[in-house]
Amino acid sequence: MLSDYTKIIKQLTKYKRVEGLMQYINYESLMEQHRKQERNKAPGIDNVNKTEYDKEIEQNIEEILYELKTFKYRPTPVKRVYIPKTGNKELRPLGIPIYKDKIVQSVFTDILNAIYENIFINNSYGFRPGRNCHKAIIELNKIIINKRVNYILDADIKGFFENVDHNWLEKFLKHTIKDKHFIRYIKRFLKSGIMENGRKVITYEGTSQGGLISPILANVYLHYVLDVWIELDIKKRYKGEVHSIRYADDFVICFEYEKEAKKCYEELKERLNKFNLKLAENKTKIIKFDKSNNGSKDSFDFLGFTHYNGKTRKGYYQIIYRTSKKKMKAKKQSAKIWIKENIQLKPEEIIKKLNIKLMGHYRYYGITGNYNKLMEFKNYVTRTLFKELRGRGQKNKISWEKFNKILKYNPIIEPKIYVKLY
Protein backbone atom coordinates (compact mmCIF):
# COMPACT_ATOMS: atom_id res chain seq x y z
CA MET A 1 0.00 0.00 0.00
CA LEU A 2 1.41 3.37 -1.03
CA SER A 3 2.20 5.97 1.62
CA ASP A 4 0.23 9.23 1.47
CA TYR A 5 3.13 11.19 -0.01
CA THR A 6 3.67 8.68 -2.82
CA LYS A 7 -0.05 8.82 -3.67
CA ILE A 8 0.24 12.59 -4.08
CA ILE A 9 3.32 12.26 -6.30
CA LYS A 10 1.63 9.60 -8.41
CA GLN A 11 -1.30 11.95 -9.00
CA LEU A 12 0.93 14.91 -9.88
CA THR A 13 2.89 12.93 -12.48
CA LYS A 14 -0.20 12.51 -14.62
CA TYR A 15 -0.18 16.18 -15.54
CA LYS A 16 3.37 17.60 -15.70
CA ARG A 17 7.05 17.23 -14.86
CA VAL A 18 7.19 16.93 -11.10
CA GLU A 19 9.07 19.32 -8.84
CA GLY A 20 9.29 20.03 -5.13
CA LEU A 21 10.04 16.37 -4.41
CA MET A 22 12.47 17.08 -1.57
CA GLN A 23 9.56 18.15 0.67
CA TYR A 24 8.42 14.51 0.78
CA ILE A 25 11.75 13.45 2.26
CA ASN A 26 10.93 14.38 5.83
CA TYR A 27 11.09 12.99 9.36
CA GLU A 28 7.94 10.86 8.90
CA SER A 29 8.97 9.30 5.58
CA LEU A 30 12.49 8.54 6.83
CA MET A 31 11.15 6.99 10.03
CA GLU A 32 8.65 4.92 8.04
CA GLN A 33 11.45 3.48 5.91
CA HIS A 34 13.50 2.71 9.02
CA ARG A 35 10.60 0.64 10.38
CA LYS A 36 10.39 -1.30 7.11
CA GLN A 37 14.06 -2.36 7.07
CA GLU A 38 14.85 -5.96 8.01
CA ARG A 39 17.08 -6.61 11.00
CA ASN A 40 19.02 -9.58 9.65
CA LYS A 41 20.57 -7.83 6.65
CA ALA A 42 24.35 -7.59 6.28
CA PRO A 43 25.81 -4.21 7.37
CA GLY A 44 27.84 -1.89 5.16
CA ILE A 45 31.44 -0.75 5.68
CA ASP A 46 30.59 0.88 9.05
CA ASN A 47 29.26 -2.45 10.44
CA VAL A 48 26.15 -0.69 11.80
CA ASN A 49 22.92 -2.70 11.52
CA LYS A 50 19.32 -1.80 12.27
CA THR A 51 19.52 -2.84 15.93
CA GLU A 52 22.52 -0.58 16.52
CA TYR A 53 20.99 2.32 14.59
CA ASP A 54 17.72 1.93 16.49
CA LYS A 55 19.31 2.85 19.83
CA GLU A 56 19.28 6.58 19.03
CA ILE A 57 16.87 6.54 16.12
CA GLU A 58 15.21 9.93 16.71
CA GLN A 59 18.57 11.71 16.82
CA ASN A 60 19.86 9.73 13.83
CA ILE A 61 16.84 10.62 11.70
CA GLU A 62 17.14 14.30 12.65
CA GLU A 63 20.81 14.25 11.60
CA ILE A 64 19.94 12.72 8.22
CA LEU A 65 17.25 15.33 7.68
CA TYR A 66 19.61 18.20 8.57
CA GLU A 67 22.26 16.91 6.16
CA LEU A 68 19.71 16.55 3.36
CA LYS A 69 18.29 20.04 3.84
CA THR A 70 21.74 21.67 3.95
CA PHE A 71 23.03 19.54 1.03
CA LYS A 72 25.75 18.09 3.24
CA TYR A 73 24.45 14.54 2.85
CA ARG A 74 26.86 12.38 0.86
CA PRO A 75 26.31 8.61 0.54
CA THR A 76 29.07 6.37 1.86
CA PRO A 77 30.81 3.95 -0.56
CA VAL A 78 29.09 0.57 -0.68
CA LYS A 79 30.82 -2.58 0.51
CA ARG A 80 31.65 -4.77 -2.48
CA VAL A 81 31.15 -8.50 -2.02
CA TYR A 82 30.92 -11.27 -4.58
CA ILE A 83 28.32 -14.01 -4.82
CA PRO A 84 28.31 -17.02 -7.19
CA LYS A 85 26.41 -16.65 -10.46
CA THR A 86 23.74 -19.26 -11.07
CA GLY A 87 24.97 -22.16 -13.15
CA ASN A 88 28.67 -21.28 -13.48
CA LYS A 89 31.83 -20.50 -11.54
CA GLU A 90 31.73 -16.76 -12.19
CA LEU A 91 31.07 -14.34 -9.35
CA ARG A 92 28.51 -11.53 -9.38
CA PRO A 93 29.42 -8.24 -7.67
CA LEU A 94 27.02 -7.07 -4.97
CA GLY A 95 27.06 -3.70 -3.21
CA ILE A 96 25.96 -3.34 0.43
CA PRO A 97 25.14 0.24 1.51
CA ILE A 98 25.49 1.40 5.11
CA TYR A 99 22.23 1.37 7.07
CA LYS A 100 21.83 5.17 7.00
CA ASP A 101 22.01 5.16 3.20
CA LYS A 102 19.47 2.33 3.03
CA ILE A 103 16.90 4.52 4.77
CA VAL A 104 17.49 7.47 2.43
CA GLN A 105 17.59 5.28 -0.68
CA SER A 106 14.30 3.69 0.35
CA VAL A 107 12.51 7.06 0.46
CA PHE A 108 13.97 8.08 -2.92
CA THR A 109 12.96 4.68 -4.32
CA ASP A 110 9.36 5.07 -3.12
CA ILE A 111 9.13 8.48 -4.77
CA LEU A 112 10.61 7.22 -8.05
CA ASN A 113 8.23 4.24 -8.06
CA ALA A 114 5.26 6.55 -7.54
CA ILE A 115 6.39 8.70 -10.46
CA TYR A 116 7.25 6.00 -12.97
CA GLU A 117 4.37 3.61 -12.38
CA ASN A 118 2.35 6.18 -14.38
CA ILE A 119 4.92 6.09 -17.17
CA PHE A 120 6.23 2.55 -17.56
CA ILE A 121 4.48 0.51 -20.24
CA ASN A 122 2.82 -2.83 -19.67
CA ASN A 123 5.52 -5.03 -21.15
CA SER A 124 7.97 -4.40 -18.28
CA TYR A 125 8.04 -6.56 -15.16
CA GLY A 126 10.38 -6.96 -12.24
CA PHE A 127 10.86 -4.60 -9.27
CA ARG A 128 7.41 -3.17 -9.90
CA PRO A 129 4.33 -3.53 -7.67
CA GLY A 130 2.26 -6.59 -8.60
CA ARG A 131 4.49 -7.49 -11.56
CA ASN A 132 6.49 -10.53 -10.54
CA CYS A 133 8.20 -13.16 -12.69
CA HIS A 134 5.15 -15.43 -12.86
CA LYS A 135 3.01 -12.65 -14.28
CA ALA A 136 5.69 -11.97 -16.90
CA ILE A 137 5.64 -15.66 -17.90
CA ILE A 138 1.83 -15.73 -18.00
CA GLU A 139 1.75 -12.65 -20.25
CA LEU A 140 4.41 -14.12 -22.56
CA ASN A 141 2.35 -17.33 -22.71
CA LYS A 142 -0.71 -15.33 -23.83
CA ILE A 143 1.28 -13.47 -26.47
CA ILE A 144 2.76 -16.62 -28.03
CA ILE A 145 -0.56 -18.49 -28.03
CA ASN A 146 -2.92 -15.68 -29.08
CA LYS A 147 -0.76 -13.48 -31.31
CA ARG A 148 0.95 -14.12 -34.63
CA VAL A 149 4.27 -15.21 -33.17
CA ASN A 150 6.61 -17.44 -35.16
CA TYR A 151 10.08 -16.30 -34.10
CA ILE A 152 11.57 -15.21 -30.79
CA LEU A 153 14.67 -13.12 -30.21
CA ASP A 154 16.08 -14.33 -26.89
CA ALA A 155 18.44 -11.50 -25.93
CA ASP A 156 20.96 -10.87 -23.19
CA ILE A 157 22.65 -7.58 -22.24
CA LYS A 158 26.28 -7.97 -21.24
CA GLY A 159 26.95 -6.67 -17.72
CA PHE A 160 23.97 -4.33 -17.72
CA PHE A 161 24.14 -3.05 -14.13
CA GLU A 162 27.87 -2.36 -14.43
CA ASN A 163 27.47 -0.30 -17.63
CA VAL A 164 24.52 2.03 -17.06
CA ASP A 165 25.65 5.42 -18.39
CA HIS A 166 25.19 8.09 -15.71
CA ASN A 167 24.82 10.96 -18.18
CA TRP A 168 22.11 9.19 -20.15
CA LEU A 169 20.31 8.19 -16.96
CA GLU A 170 20.30 11.81 -15.80
CA LYS A 171 18.79 12.89 -19.14
CA PHE A 172 16.09 10.23 -18.84
CA LEU A 173 15.21 11.31 -15.30
CA LYS A 174 14.94 14.95 -16.39
CA HIS A 175 12.20 14.01 -18.87
CA THR A 176 9.87 13.68 -15.90
CA ILE A 177 11.58 15.23 -12.86
CA LYS A 178 12.10 18.97 -12.63
CA ASP A 179 13.48 18.99 -9.09
CA LYS A 180 17.23 19.65 -9.52
CA HIS A 181 18.06 18.88 -5.90
CA PHE A 182 16.33 15.49 -6.08
CA ILE A 183 18.33 14.53 -9.18
CA ARG A 184 21.47 15.93 -7.55
CA TYR A 185 21.16 13.37 -4.75
CA ILE A 186 20.53 10.52 -7.20
CA LYS A 187 23.77 11.46 -8.93
CA ARG A 188 25.52 11.31 -5.56
CA PHE A 189 24.20 7.80 -5.01
CA LEU A 190 25.48 6.75 -8.43
CA LYS A 191 28.93 8.21 -7.80
CA SER A 192 29.27 7.23 -4.13
CA GLY A 193 31.90 4.64 -5.01
CA ILE A 194 32.79 1.14 -3.90
CA MET A 195 34.94 -0.02 -1.00
CA GLU A 196 36.81 -3.21 -1.88
CA ASN A 197 39.68 -4.70 0.12
CA GLY A 198 40.05 -1.45 2.05
CA ARG A 199 40.38 0.64 -1.13
CA LYS A 200 37.82 3.09 -2.49
CA VAL A 201 36.97 2.76 -6.16
CA ILE A 202 35.26 5.74 -7.80
CA THR A 203 32.27 4.77 -9.99
CA TYR A 204 31.81 6.60 -13.29
CA GLU A 205 29.18 4.24 -14.67
CA GLY A 206 26.80 1.50 -13.51
CA THR A 207 24.36 1.11 -10.64
CA SER A 208 25.31 -0.91 -7.60
CA GLN A 209 23.63 -4.32 -7.48
CA GLY A 210 22.33 -4.56 -3.95
CA GLY A 211 21.57 -0.85 -3.67
CA LEU A 212 17.88 -0.30 -2.90
CA ILE A 213 17.58 2.42 -5.53
CA SER A 214 19.30 0.44 -8.32
CA PRO A 215 16.27 -1.59 -9.54
CA ILE A 216 14.06 1.44 -10.22
CA LEU A 217 16.95 3.31 -11.89
CA ALA A 218 17.61 0.24 -14.06
CA ASN A 219 13.93 0.16 -15.05
CA VAL A 220 14.01 3.87 -15.94
CA TYR A 221 17.10 3.32 -18.11
CA LEU A 222 15.66 0.35 -20.00
CA HIS A 223 12.26 2.02 -20.32
CA TYR A 224 13.83 4.64 -22.59
CA VAL A 225 16.53 2.50 -24.17
CA LEU A 226 14.41 -0.56 -24.94
CA ASP A 227 10.67 -0.39 -24.13
CA VAL A 228 9.90 2.96 -25.76
CA TRP A 229 12.09 2.12 -28.75
CA ILE A 230 10.20 -1.13 -29.41
CA GLU A 231 6.79 0.44 -28.80
CA LEU A 232 7.18 3.70 -30.76
CA ASP A 233 9.76 2.79 -33.40
CA ILE A 234 10.06 -0.95 -34.12
CA LYS A 235 6.32 -1.70 -33.98
CA LYS A 236 5.52 1.19 -36.30
CA ARG A 237 8.17 0.36 -38.92
CA TYR A 238 7.76 -3.42 -39.07
CA LYS A 239 4.95 -4.96 -41.11
CA GLY A 240 4.48 -8.05 -38.96
CA GLU A 241 3.45 -8.24 -35.31
CA VAL A 242 6.08 -7.45 -32.69
CA HIS A 243 5.69 -8.05 -28.96
CA SER A 244 8.15 -7.90 -26.08
CA ILE A 245 8.34 -8.86 -22.43
CA ARG A 246 11.05 -7.50 -20.16
CA TYR A 247 11.86 -8.53 -16.59
CA ALA A 248 14.57 -6.16 -15.28
CA ASP A 249 17.41 -6.64 -17.80
CA ASP A 250 16.14 -10.01 -19.06
CA PHE A 251 13.87 -9.78 -22.11
CA VAL A 252 12.51 -11.53 -25.20
CA ILE A 253 11.06 -10.02 -28.39
CA CYS A 254 8.47 -11.96 -30.41
CA PHE A 255 8.06 -11.61 -34.20
CA GLU A 256 5.71 -12.72 -36.90
CA TYR A 257 8.41 -12.78 -39.60
CA GLU A 258 11.91 -14.23 -39.50
CA LYS A 259 13.28 -11.47 -41.71
CA GLU A 260 12.18 -8.82 -39.23
CA ALA A 261 13.55 -10.80 -36.29
CA LYS A 262 16.97 -10.80 -37.97
CA LYS A 263 16.67 -7.11 -38.80
CA CYS A 264 15.81 -6.27 -35.20
CA TYR A 265 18.80 -8.28 -33.98
CA GLU A 266 21.14 -5.96 -35.91
CA GLU A 267 19.25 -2.83 -34.93
CA LEU A 268 19.23 -3.89 -31.28
CA LYS A 269 23.03 -4.04 -31.26
CA GLU A 270 23.21 -0.49 -32.59
CA ARG A 271 20.55 0.73 -30.16
CA LEU A 272 22.33 -0.69 -27.11
CA ASN A 273 25.73 0.59 -28.26
CA LYS A 274 24.32 4.12 -28.42
CA PHE A 275 23.61 3.94 -24.69
CA ASN A 276 26.90 2.32 -23.65
CA LEU A 277 25.45 -1.19 -23.53
CA LYS A 278 26.40 -4.32 -25.46
CA LEU A 279 24.48 -7.36 -26.58
CA ALA A 280 25.98 -10.63 -25.32
CA GLU A 281 25.97 -12.24 -28.75
CA ASN A 282 27.04 -15.65 -27.43
CA LYS A 283 23.86 -15.71 -25.31
CA THR A 284 21.52 -14.12 -27.87
CA LYS A 285 19.70 -16.13 -30.52
CA ILE A 286 16.67 -16.22 -32.79
CA ILE A 287 14.42 -19.25 -32.32
CA LYS A 288 11.68 -20.55 -34.57
CA PHE A 289 8.77 -20.95 -32.19
CA ASP A 290 5.44 -21.33 -33.97
CA LYS A 291 2.11 -23.01 -33.39
CA SER A 292 1.96 -25.06 -36.60
CA ASN A 293 1.52 -28.83 -36.52
CA ASN A 294 5.15 -29.14 -37.49
CA GLY A 295 6.23 -26.69 -34.84
CA SER A 296 9.91 -26.25 -34.15
CA LYS A 297 11.55 -28.34 -31.45
CA ASP A 298 13.72 -25.37 -30.53
CA SER A 299 13.40 -23.94 -27.05
CA PHE A 300 14.46 -20.86 -25.14
CA ASP A 301 15.12 -20.01 -21.51
CA PHE A 302 13.44 -17.10 -19.75
CA LEU A 303 13.39 -16.39 -16.01
CA GLY A 304 14.72 -19.82 -15.08
CA PHE A 305 12.31 -21.83 -17.23
CA THR A 306 12.87 -23.56 -20.55
CA HIS A 307 9.94 -22.93 -22.93
CA TYR A 308 9.03 -25.72 -25.38
CA ASN A 309 6.40 -26.09 -28.10
CA GLY A 310 3.87 -28.73 -27.09
CA LYS A 311 0.32 -30.04 -27.25
CA THR A 312 -2.45 -30.86 -24.80
CA ARG A 313 -3.87 -34.38 -24.61
CA LYS A 314 -6.61 -33.23 -26.98
CA GLY A 315 -4.06 -32.05 -29.51
CA TYR A 316 -4.29 -28.31 -28.88
CA TYR A 317 -1.18 -26.16 -28.90
CA GLN A 318 0.39 -25.21 -25.58
CA ILE A 319 3.75 -24.12 -24.21
CA ILE A 320 5.51 -26.60 -21.96
CA TYR A 321 7.61 -25.27 -19.08
CA ARG A 322 10.49 -26.99 -17.33
CA THR A 323 13.09 -25.78 -14.87
CA SER A 324 16.06 -24.90 -17.08
CA LYS A 325 19.05 -27.24 -16.97
CA LYS A 326 21.30 -24.37 -15.94
CA LYS A 327 19.10 -23.42 -13.00
CA MET A 328 18.51 -27.02 -11.94
CA LYS A 329 22.24 -27.73 -11.90
CA ALA A 330 22.90 -24.61 -9.85
CA LYS A 331 20.08 -25.34 -7.40
CA LYS A 332 21.30 -28.90 -6.84
CA GLN A 333 24.85 -27.71 -6.29
CA SER A 334 23.67 -25.05 -3.84
CA ALA A 335 21.55 -27.60 -1.92
CA LYS A 336 24.46 -30.05 -1.71
CA ILE A 337 26.80 -27.38 -0.32
CA TRP A 338 24.20 -26.29 2.24
CA ILE A 339 23.62 -29.86 3.45
CA LYS A 340 27.37 -30.43 3.81
CA GLU A 341 27.76 -27.22 5.81
CA ASN A 342 24.90 -28.12 8.18
CA ILE A 343 25.34 -31.88 8.45
CA GLN A 344 26.46 -31.71 12.11
CA LEU A 345 22.99 -30.56 13.17
CA LYS A 346 20.39 -33.06 14.33
CA PRO A 347 18.56 -34.66 11.37
CA GLU A 348 15.23 -33.15 12.39
CA GLU A 349 16.80 -29.66 12.53
CA ILE A 350 18.36 -30.10 9.10
CA ILE A 351 15.04 -31.24 7.61
CA LYS A 352 13.16 -28.34 9.22
CA LYS A 353 15.54 -25.82 7.63
CA LEU A 354 15.62 -27.74 4.33
CA ASN A 355 11.84 -27.57 4.13
CA ILE A 356 11.96 -23.78 4.27
CA LYS A 357 14.38 -23.75 1.33
CA LEU A 358 12.31 -26.32 -0.58
CA MET A 359 9.16 -24.26 -0.06
CA GLY A 360 10.88 -21.27 -1.67
CA HIS A 361 11.94 -23.47 -4.60
CA TYR A 362 8.44 -24.88 -5.06
CA ARG A 363 6.80 -21.45 -4.92
CA TYR A 364 9.03 -20.17 -7.71
CA TYR A 365 9.30 -23.21 -9.97
CA GLY A 366 5.89 -24.68 -9.13
CA ILE A 367 4.10 -23.68 -12.34
CA THR A 368 1.78 -25.70 -14.56
CA GLY A 369 3.56 -28.66 -16.16
CA ASN A 370 6.71 -28.50 -14.06
CA TYR A 371 5.76 -30.99 -11.31
CA ASN A 372 8.23 -33.67 -12.44
CA LYS A 373 11.12 -31.23 -12.17
CA LEU A 374 10.01 -30.28 -8.67
CA MET A 375 9.99 -33.96 -7.73
CA GLU A 376 13.41 -34.45 -9.34
CA PHE A 377 14.82 -31.70 -7.11
CA LYS A 378 13.11 -33.06 -3.99
CA ASN A 379 14.45 -36.58 -4.66
CA TYR A 380 17.96 -35.20 -5.22
CA VAL A 381 17.85 -33.35 -1.90
CA THR A 382 16.57 -36.49 -0.13
CA ARG A 383 19.33 -38.71 -1.59
CA THR A 384 22.01 -36.13 -0.82
CA LEU A 385 20.84 -35.81 2.77
CA PHE A 386 20.94 -39.59 3.23
CA LYS A 387 24.43 -39.80 1.71
CA GLU A 388 25.80 -37.05 3.94
CA LEU A 389 24.16 -38.45 7.10
CA ARG A 390 25.56 -41.86 6.30
CA GLY A 391 29.00 -40.39 5.69
CA ARG A 392 29.21 -38.71 9.08
CA GLY A 393 28.92 -42.01 10.98
CA GLN A 394 32.22 -43.82 11.45
CA LYS A 395 31.11 -47.17 12.90
CA ASN A 396 27.33 -47.31 12.93
CA LYS A 397 26.47 -45.88 9.56
CA ILE A 398 22.82 -44.93 9.15
CA SER A 399 20.82 -47.43 7.08
CA TRP A 400 18.15 -46.60 4.52
CA GLU A 401 15.56 -48.13 6.88
CA LYS A 402 16.62 -45.90 9.78
CA PHE A 403 16.66 -42.89 7.46
CA ASN A 404 13.07 -43.65 6.42
CA LYS A 405 12.05 -43.78 10.07
CA ILE A 406 13.51 -40.31 10.55
CA LEU A 407 11.54 -39.12 7.51
CA LYS A 408 8.36 -40.69 8.87
CA TYR A 409 8.38 -38.33 11.85
CA ASN A 410 10.19 -35.47 10.07
CA PRO A 411 8.91 -35.60 6.49
CA ILE A 412 10.53 -33.65 3.70
CA ILE A 413 7.90 -31.34 2.23
CA GLU A 414 6.26 -32.57 -0.98
CA PRO A 415 6.18 -30.52 -4.22
CA LYS A 416 3.12 -28.53 -5.13
CA ILE A 417 2.03 -26.43 -8.12
CA TYR A 418 1.46 -22.86 -6.94
CA VAL A 419 1.05 -21.00 -10.25
CA LYS A 420 -1.55 -22.13 -12.79
CA LEU A 421 -0.95 -20.89 -16.31
CA TYR A 422 -4.17 -22.12 -17.87
* Uncertain segments: none
Compute the CA-based radius of gyration: 24 Å
Class of secondary structure makeup: alpha+beta
Strand arrangement, major sheet: 3-7-8-4-9
Distance between the termini: 29 Å
β-sheet strand percentage = 5-15%
Record field, number of beta strands: 12
| Main sheet summary | 5 strands, mixed
- What is the H-and-E element order? HHHHEEHEHEHHEEHEEHEEEEHHHH
The percentage helix is 40-55%
Report mean pLDDT, rounded to a whole number: 89
Quaternary state of this entry equals: single chain
Number of helices: 14
User: In one word, what is the shape?
Assistant: flat
Structure characterization notes:
This protein has 422 residues and is α+β, with helices and mostly antiparallel strands. It has helices at residues 4-13, 27-36, 50-53, 57-69, 99-116, 133-146, 166-174, 180-190, 214-237, 258-274, 325-341, 347-365, 371-392, 400-409, and strands at 78-84, 91-96, 124-125, 151-156, 194-196, 199-201, 242-247, 250-255, 285-288, 299-302, 305-311, 317-323. The protein has a 5-stranded mixed beta sheet, with helices on both faces. Strand 1 (78-84) and strand 2 form a beta hairpin. The chain is flat and about 70 Å long. The mean pLDDT is 89.
Q: What's the layout of helices and strands?
A:
Blueprint: H1 4-13, H2 27-36, H3 50-53, H4 57-69, E1 78-84, E2 91-96, H5 99-116, E3 124-125, H6 133-146, E4 151-156, H7 166-174, H8 180-190, E5 194-196, E6 199-201, H9 214-237, E7 242-247, E8 250-255, H10 258-274, E9 285-288, E10 299-302, E11 305-311, E12 317-323, H11 325-341, H12 347-365, H13 371-392, H14 400-409
Parallel strand pairs: 1-5, 3-7
Antiparallel strand pairs: 1-2, 4-8, 4-9, 5-6, 7-8, 10-11, 11-12
